[in-house]
Amino acid sequence: MIRIELLSKTNFHLESLDSYNRKQFVNKVYRRIDGEYKLVDCNYVEDWDLDEKRLIARRISSDDYITYLALENDKVVGFIGLLKKLNGSYMILDMMHVSNEYRGQGIGRSLFEKGIEEARKAQAKALYISACSSEETIAFYKAMGCFLIDNPIKEIADKEPFDLQMICSLKQ
Questions:
Q1: What is the domain range of residue 124?
Q2: Which of 22, 27, 70, 168 is most buried (most C-beta within 10 Å)?
Q3: Distance separating alpha carbons of residues 12 and 21, to the nearest angstrom
Q4: How would DSSP label each residue in 34-87?
Q5: By the 8 A CB rule, do 96 and 103 touch?
Q6: Could you give the CA distance from residue 96 to residue 85 in angstroms, rounded to a whole number?
Q7: Coil vs helix vs strand at 6
Q8: Which CATH number is 150's domain given?
Q9: Is the pTM of this model over 0.90?
Protein backbone atom coordinates (compact mmCIF):
# COMPACT_ATOMS: atom_id res chain seq x y z
CA MET A 1 0.00 0.00 0.00
CA ILE A 2 1.26 3.47 -0.92
CA ARG A 3 1.54 6.06 1.87
CA ILE A 4 1.88 9.81 1.32
CA GLU A 5 4.05 11.42 4.01
CA LEU A 6 5.79 14.71 4.59
CA LEU A 7 9.54 14.21 4.07
CA SER A 8 11.39 13.85 7.38
CA LYS A 9 14.73 12.62 8.69
CA THR A 10 13.08 9.31 9.58
CA ASN A 11 11.65 8.53 6.12
CA PHE A 12 14.27 10.05 3.81
CA HIS A 13 18.06 10.25 3.44
CA LEU A 14 20.39 11.29 0.63
CA GLU A 15 20.42 7.74 -0.81
CA SER A 16 16.62 7.39 -0.83
CA LEU A 17 16.40 8.07 -4.57
CA ASP A 18 19.30 5.78 -5.58
CA SER A 19 16.96 3.08 -6.93
CA TYR A 20 14.27 5.52 -8.06
CA ASN A 21 13.08 4.87 -11.63
CA ARG A 22 12.76 8.33 -13.20
CA LYS A 23 12.63 6.94 -16.73
CA GLN A 24 10.05 8.53 -19.00
CA PHE A 25 9.72 7.64 -22.66
CA VAL A 26 8.65 10.75 -24.56
CA ASN A 27 7.16 10.52 -28.05
CA LYS A 28 5.33 13.81 -28.49
CA VAL A 29 5.88 17.27 -27.02
CA TYR A 30 4.13 20.60 -27.24
CA ARG A 31 5.90 23.35 -29.17
CA ARG A 32 4.75 26.86 -29.90
CA ILE A 33 4.11 27.09 -33.65
CA ASP A 34 2.55 30.17 -35.25
CA GLY A 35 1.52 31.47 -31.83
CA GLU A 36 -0.17 28.33 -30.51
CA TYR A 37 0.92 25.09 -28.88
CA LYS A 38 0.85 22.02 -31.09
CA LEU A 39 1.93 18.42 -30.50
CA VAL A 40 4.98 17.40 -32.52
CA ASP A 41 6.96 14.18 -32.71
CA CYS A 42 10.03 14.21 -30.48
CA ASN A 43 11.36 10.88 -29.26
CA TYR A 44 13.70 10.77 -26.27
CA VAL A 45 14.08 9.24 -22.83
CA GLU A 46 14.22 11.32 -19.64
CA ASP A 47 16.24 9.71 -16.89
CA TRP A 48 18.57 10.54 -13.99
CA ASP A 49 21.98 9.09 -13.21
CA LEU A 50 23.09 8.50 -9.63
CA ASP A 51 24.70 11.95 -9.31
CA GLU A 52 21.47 13.63 -10.44
CA LYS A 53 19.41 11.50 -8.01
CA ARG A 54 21.64 12.56 -5.12
CA LEU A 55 21.47 16.22 -6.19
CA ILE A 56 17.66 16.02 -6.30
CA ALA A 57 17.64 14.29 -2.89
CA ARG A 58 19.67 17.17 -1.42
CA ARG A 59 17.37 19.76 -2.96
CA ILE A 60 14.06 18.29 -1.89
CA SER A 61 15.31 17.64 1.65
CA SER A 62 16.65 21.19 2.11
CA ASP A 63 14.98 23.81 4.28
CA ASP A 64 13.83 25.63 1.12
CA TYR A 65 11.31 22.88 0.29
CA ILE A 66 8.10 21.34 1.49
CA THR A 67 8.28 17.80 0.13
CA TYR A 68 5.82 14.94 0.27
CA LEU A 69 6.86 11.40 -0.50
CA ALA A 70 4.86 8.51 -1.90
CA LEU A 71 6.23 5.46 -0.11
CA GLU A 72 5.75 1.75 -0.55
CA ASN A 73 7.40 -0.25 2.22
CA ASP A 74 9.65 2.77 2.94
CA LYS A 75 10.79 2.92 -0.72
CA VAL A 76 10.25 6.30 -2.45
CA VAL A 77 7.98 5.76 -5.46
CA GLY A 78 7.05 9.40 -6.00
CA PHE A 79 7.45 12.89 -4.59
CA ILE A 80 6.40 16.50 -4.91
CA GLY A 81 8.76 19.34 -4.00
CA LEU A 82 7.32 22.80 -3.37
CA LEU A 83 9.35 25.92 -2.71
CA LYS A 84 8.42 27.27 0.73
CA LYS A 85 8.96 30.89 -0.23
CA LEU A 86 6.16 32.28 -2.37
CA ASN A 87 6.96 34.05 -5.63
CA GLY A 88 4.44 36.88 -5.49
CA SER A 89 1.12 35.14 -5.00
CA TYR A 90 2.36 31.81 -6.38
CA MET A 91 3.66 28.73 -4.62
CA ILE A 92 6.12 27.07 -6.98
CA LEU A 93 5.76 23.35 -7.64
CA ASP A 94 9.45 22.83 -8.41
CA MET A 95 9.33 19.12 -9.16
CA MET A 96 6.94 16.23 -9.08
CA HIS A 97 7.66 12.70 -10.23
CA VAL A 98 6.21 9.23 -9.93
CA SER A 99 8.47 6.26 -10.51
CA ASN A 100 7.91 4.72 -13.94
CA GLU A 101 6.41 1.43 -12.77
CA TYR A 102 3.95 3.21 -10.41
CA ARG A 103 2.39 5.64 -12.89
CA GLY A 104 -1.31 5.43 -13.64
CA GLN A 105 -2.28 4.44 -10.08
CA GLY A 106 -3.41 7.85 -8.75
CA ILE A 107 -0.15 8.58 -6.91
CA GLY A 108 0.48 11.75 -8.90
CA ARG A 109 -3.03 12.99 -8.09
CA SER A 110 -2.50 12.32 -4.36
CA LEU A 111 0.83 14.16 -4.39
CA PHE A 112 -0.64 17.07 -6.36
CA GLU A 113 -3.49 17.36 -3.84
CA LYS A 114 -0.87 17.69 -1.06
CA GLY A 115 0.70 20.49 -3.09
CA ILE A 116 -2.65 22.25 -3.32
CA GLU A 117 -3.13 21.89 0.46
CA GLU A 118 0.30 23.43 1.14
CA ALA A 119 -0.33 26.29 -1.29
CA ARG A 120 -3.62 27.05 0.47
CA LYS A 121 -1.92 26.96 3.89
CA ALA A 122 0.63 29.46 2.58
CA GLN A 123 -2.26 31.62 1.29
CA ALA A 124 -1.01 31.44 -2.28
CA LYS A 125 -3.47 32.35 -5.01
CA ALA A 126 -2.17 29.61 -7.32
CA LEU A 127 0.27 26.76 -7.70
CA TYR A 128 2.80 27.58 -10.44
CA ILE A 129 4.28 24.79 -12.57
CA SER A 130 7.02 24.90 -15.19
CA ALA A 131 5.92 21.65 -16.80
CA CYS A 132 7.85 19.32 -19.08
CA SER A 133 6.20 19.71 -22.48
CA SER A 134 5.61 15.98 -23.01
CA GLU A 135 2.10 15.00 -24.04
CA GLU A 136 1.56 12.86 -20.91
CA THR A 137 2.83 15.50 -18.48
CA ILE A 138 0.63 18.24 -19.89
CA ALA A 139 -2.38 15.89 -19.98
CA PHE A 140 -1.82 15.16 -16.27
CA TYR A 141 -1.64 18.81 -15.26
CA LYS A 142 -4.69 19.69 -17.36
CA ALA A 143 -6.58 16.85 -15.65
CA MET A 144 -5.60 18.46 -12.33
CA GLY A 145 -7.23 21.73 -13.44
CA CYS A 146 -4.05 23.53 -14.51
CA PHE A 147 -3.91 25.83 -17.49
CA LEU A 148 -1.31 27.72 -19.51
CA ILE A 149 -0.58 31.28 -18.50
CA ASP A 150 0.23 34.25 -20.69
CA ASN A 151 2.50 36.02 -18.21
CA PRO A 152 4.98 33.45 -16.86
CA ILE A 153 7.59 34.09 -14.21
CA LYS A 154 10.43 35.16 -16.51
CA GLU A 155 13.36 33.67 -14.59
CA ILE A 156 11.62 30.28 -14.41
CA ALA A 157 10.50 30.30 -18.05
CA ASP A 158 13.99 31.34 -19.20
CA LYS A 159 15.63 28.39 -17.36
CA GLU A 160 13.52 25.83 -19.23
CA PRO A 161 12.46 27.38 -22.56
CA PHE A 162 10.68 24.23 -23.76
CA ASP A 163 8.62 23.84 -20.57
CA LEU A 164 5.01 25.01 -20.56
CA GLN A 165 4.25 27.54 -17.83
CA MET A 166 1.03 26.63 -16.06
CA ILE A 167 -0.91 27.45 -12.93
CA CYS A 168 -3.56 25.79 -10.87
CA SER A 169 -5.76 28.53 -9.45
CA LEU A 170 -6.76 28.04 -5.83
CA LYS A 171 -10.27 28.83 -4.71
CA GLN A 172 -9.95 29.84 -1.07
A1: 2-169
A2: 70
A3: 16
A4: TTEEEEEEEEEEE---HHHHHHHHHHHTSTTEEEEEEEETTEEEEEEEEESS-B
A5: no
A6: 17
A7: strand
A8: 3.40.630.30
A9: yes
